[in-house]
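Quick note —
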Amino acid sequence: MTAVIDGSGGTTRLAAAQAVVNDFVDTLQGDRIGLVIFQQRALTLSPLTNDADAIHARVRSLGPGLVPDGTAIGLGLAEATALLQDSPARSRVVVLLTDGQNNAGEIQPLDAARVAQALGVRVYTIGFLSSEFGGVDRQMLRNMAESTGGQSFDARTQSDLAAAYAEVSSLERSRLGQREFTSFREYAPWIAAVAVALLAIEGALRVTWLRSQP
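Predicted structure written out below.
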């Protein structure tokens, strides 16, 4: 995630992801948010909370050395799904952003997706790609999303990434009843090809968009 985005004037993928995720959190004011990071293993940095400022601080603090290097997508998704397991909301969503391929952890991504599906958690995946579309298993990400009723997106720039998150919001907005967002960010600081950003956000929303459930 420390690689510079082509044509960005020096913006790294990590900086772009932090900016987009923070903007997304701002649209969920009043909703519960949690933060999970993973590399070789998964780590919950924040339990579910409606304190958006605390989540912003956690996102800004992401940097090298929090967990050993690697890309354990399956573990990250499993950890994120566990945050939502006991939530009473009728609609629960995970947004998974990655620019790497799974290369660590004892849980395979598709197995984690099957668990999410069984628990009624919808998964959206976003592949943050290089200009050559390398470094990401796009088919696996599509399979993960589609198996849970979600969708998969590709992004090469910060604008693409923002558009993907906006599309997730639009798709969830179109669903009736309560909605709940869960998004996940994993961060691999040293090698962009295996870095993954995963932000976990959970919100129990009313039928009217962006109103929190008491």
